[in-house]
Amino acid sequence: MFELLATNATTISAQFDVIGFKESPLALAQAHETREKLMAAHSELAEEGAIEIVIIKTTGDKILSQPLADIGGKGLFTKEIDEALINGDIDIAVHSMKDVPTYLPEQTILPCNMEREDVRDAFISLNASSLADLAAGSIIGTASLRRKSQILHRYPSLKVVENFRGNVQTRLRKLNEGVVHATLLALAGLRRLNMTDNVTATLSIDDMLPAVAQGAIGIACRTNDDKMAEYLASLNHEETRLAVTCERAFLETLDGSCRTPIAGYASRDENGDCLFKGLVASPDGTRVLETSRKGRYALDDMILMGKDAGKELLSRAGPGFFNS
């Protein structure tokens, strides 16, 4: 049977499939979404017991008292899942793509990005209708330097608590307890959890450029597992895969880490072309550098756009930019 693991990623295993994912309600929702789509696409997987879901607790889930950058960055949400996949404990791993480092471990491939959810960020507050409506000195909780830098760039009178970590439910509980006055969360996660009733306002792309690959689910399998690769290919949404590849090329060129405020978003415009927007910022938000590219919505063109945008911002930023 397939086995499914739960963590920031999800996995599927042999006989049928085992899906592995990170331990969180959102990761579990993404694992179930993957299972449902596999069952709908392949009748043999709709049989009882064909797909098993297994929860994997990652280092990123275990250590919540420190900022991600201080304990090793985003790879902490995928390391244990990757190991389970390589060891054959699971057959596929379901990841939030924005948690996946720009490199993949040897013996693994990521042949599938499911159709992307809404990429925007949601503003949530009990006493303000928007960021602009918050009083000077108000405290915003976020674990994202990307969000922090863009907030402070536009609203320097606000304060941002960096280590506002935990799953969606935990962050909302802290907000309700008055630990912070507002927080920002990915709208995609709230939609997958059916929790959009908590959203106070949705931020536009111009107000808050999203994280690279935000809203996208990626599914990995072992390099030599042709059967799993075939299953996953049936779930792939090519427009999403190309957009994510473009954004990750930008991130890789910048050698981005959790210490680096970086945002990037590739989309298809009204003419069917790719429009890419990229941003880097100083952690304190005093400097924000932006760029954009437009070209054919095709793999090679989009990789080049992402890389070229990254090279431009590296050149404009100069040495020491991210240490300010």
From TrEMBL:
Q: Which residues form the Porphobilinogen deaminase N-terminal domain?
A: 19-229
What cofactor does its activity depend on?
dipyrromethane
Catalytic EC class: transferase
Cellular location(s):
Plastid, Chloroplast
Q: Which GO terms describe its biological process?
A: chlorophyll biosynthetic process; heme biosynthetic process
Residue ranges of every copy of the Porphobilinogen deaminase C-terminal domain listed in the record? 242-314
Q: Cross-referenced InterPro entries, in alphabetical order?
A: HemC (IPR000860), Porphobilin_deaminase_cofac_BS (IPR022419), Porphobilin_deaminase_N (IPR022417), Porphobilinogen_deaminase_C (IPR022418), Porphobilinogen_deaminase_C_sf (IPR036803)
The pathway that the record names for this protein is: Porphyrin-containing compound metabolism; chlorophyll biosynthesis; Porphyrin-containing compound metabolism; protoporphyrin-IX biosynthesis; coproporphyrinogen-III from 5-aminolevulinate: step 2/4
UniProt-listed Enzyme Commission number(s): 2.5.1.61
Keywords per UniProt: Chlorophyll biosynthesis, Chloroplast, Plastid, Porphyrin biosynthesis, Transferase
Output a single Gene Ontology CC term carried by this record. Answer: chloroplast
The entry sums up its family as follows: Belongs to the HMBS family.
Protein role: Tetrapolymerization of the monopyrrole PBG into the hydroxymethylbilane pre-uroporphyrinogen in several discrete steps.
User: What is the recorded name of this protein?
Assistant: Porphobilinogen deaminase, chloroplastic
